């Protein structure tokens, strides 16, 4: 993969998926801005990455970070069970700020159980986090209505475990299972260089945990 000096801004960089993406992207040669509400991350950043801070419920702060970082692409991994506004308003604010500042590429992480995939989710899941999924669904609906080069990634249940290398993307909302945050981050990095994913809503699952139809539709990235 040839990345040159592409500039990537990660919102939610203090979280497990966001921090893993920062590390992987910096190692791949991206210039990375790691943004979190308290400065991006509490631990030392890798070479090629710098910190930024923004409250995603404050649009002016998001626009200021975007103006300073001048990213070629933005990835949002934010989420907040304790404040549903993060999953809805926060994500919408990031998308709107991208549009306002001329950033044309946005990858947003939501969850399986959002949108059309809700009909395939278990009753237990919907009972546990149905309000969170509804908030994320509202954010998805907003993003898909904007003139941006967007991709939405719906991961399966997230695990704070070592990467397995089995993370896979599916163009299929019927699938479910689990996936390590680090494997999800690797998939997100791959999408940063994949224009064929623009305008797509993809599911991310560890193949060893894959459940669903016997004939899941795998996402086929663009070939060089």
TrEMBL record:
UniProt cross-references to SUPFAM superfamilies, sorted A to Z: NAD(P)-binding Rossmann-fold domains
Annotated ranges, domain NAD(P)-binding: 12-194
PANTHER family membership: FLAVIN REDUCTASE-RELATED, UPF0659 PROTEIN YMR090W
Signal peptide: none
Protein name: NAD(P)-binding domain-containing protein
UniProt xrefs under Pfam families: NAD_binding_10
């Amino acid at each position: 993969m040839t990345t040159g000096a592409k500039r990537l801004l990660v919102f939610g960089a203090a979280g497990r998926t966001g921090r893993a993406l920062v590390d992987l992207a910096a190692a791949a040669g991206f210039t990375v801005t790691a943004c979190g509400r308290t400065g991006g991350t509490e631990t030392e950043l890798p070479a090629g990455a710098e910190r930024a801070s923004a409250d995603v419920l404050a649009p002016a702060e998001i626009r200021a970070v975007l103006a300073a970082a001048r990213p070629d692409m933005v990835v949002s991994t934010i989420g907040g069970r304790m404040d549903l506004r993060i999953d809805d308003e926060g994500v919408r604010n990031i998308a709107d700020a991208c549009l306002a500042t001329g950033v044309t590429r946005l990858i947003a992480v939501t969850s399986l159980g959002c949108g059309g995939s809700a009909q395939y989710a278990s009753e237990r899941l919907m009972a546990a986090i149905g309000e969170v999924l509804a908030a994320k669904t509202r954010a998805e609906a907003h993003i898909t209505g904007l003139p941006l080069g967007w991709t939405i990634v719906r991961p399966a249940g997230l695990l704070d475990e070592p990467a397995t290398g089995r993370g896979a993307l599916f163009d299929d909302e019927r699938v479910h299972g689990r996936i390590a945050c680090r494997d999800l981050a690797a998939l997100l990095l791959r999408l940063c260089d994949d224009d064929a994913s623009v305008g797509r809503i993809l599911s991310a699952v560890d193949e060893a945990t894959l459940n669903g139809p016997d004939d899941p539709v795998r996402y086929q990235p663009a070939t060089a």
